[in-house]
Amino acid sequence: MVPAIKDRRDVDGCACLQCRSVTAATTRRTILESVLWSATLLRSYPSILAFAIPFVLTRRLLESSLLSLSPLVIGLFEGAITFGLFVFLRAYVGAIVAGELTDVQVSVTDRVRHGLGRLPALFGLALVAVGLFFGVWMLATVVSMIGVGAVLAAPIELSMVPPAVGFGALVVFVSLPFLYLIFKIWIAMEACIVGQYGPLESVRVSWRITGNYGRKLLVILVGLVGSVGFLYAVAFVPDVGGASTLGPVVSAVATSVGEITSVVWFGVYGHLYVQGIVGVDG
């Protein structure tokens, strides 16, 4: 059975760390320590790589020209494998995090059952996220149209602003709300998986945690972009050292390592969620 780590207000009875079975070391780990802790999960729980590696290798196979399948079939398979790698495996790692941080032994069967059991809630969370993004897009569109109309009706001095400057300002104005929303709901999946909250409650919990631990999450996201982003950048380099035949090999290896590295960050997200949920008082 995978333990649910919830907000103290959602816990019946005493909500101290001991009664909630959360180890005290969890609250003291720094970002670097949580990354190293998450990396050790790959060694302590070989089943993580046992799931991740087939997903990754299947993605590389589908991206190659070795399979004579129609683009539609390949697209469907790629979608299923991508879902398994970035959704199911994230739920699986979340189950491990919940057990590890509460000193509860969770079997592989229970982890798989938990990951599959949370899929309906995660699907609902995805619908909520889509609704939020659509709302932000509509609001940004309306405000942008008002802004463009105001500029067109402005005096001639303001209307002489270079188009590139105006377009750049519009892109920044529209992008910032989306980036802010992504940031605020980043831990919602962990709230749904580790906290076993429903879709709306997961967004609420993530919003509150990112308010109290926003700086920590920002550093984690910078680390994610720096590590995984670098590997993906290497993967898109067409030629390496002038040897074009090495390009596809280096690209496949770099992309695969980047995807495995993403799995390490799954554990970091779960650890941050637990730190945040036991540290949020109100």
From TrEMBL:
<feature type="transmembrane region" description="Helical">
    <location>
        <begin position="160"/>
        <end position="183"/>
    </location>
</feature>
<feature type="transmembrane region" description="Helical">
    <location>
        <begin position="69"/>
        <end position="89"/>
    </location>
</feature>
<feature type="transmembrane region" description="Helical">
    <location>
        <begin position="121"/>
        <end position="154"/>
    </location>
</feature>
<feature type="transmembrane region" description="Helical">
    <location>
        <begin position="249"/>
        <end position="268"/>
    </location>
</feature>
<feature type="transmembrane region" description="Helical">
    <location>
        <begin position="35"/>
        <end position="57"/>
    </location>
</feature>
<keyword id="KW-1133">Transmembrane helix</keyword>
<keyword id="KW-0472">Membrane</keyword>
<feature type="transmembrane region" description="Helical">
    <location>
        <begin position="217"/>
        <end position="237"/>
    </location>
</feature>
<keyword id="KW-0812">Transmembrane</keyword>
<protein>
    <recommendedName>
        <fullName>Membrane domain of glycerophosphoryl diester phosphodiesterase</fullName>
    </recommendedName>
</protein>
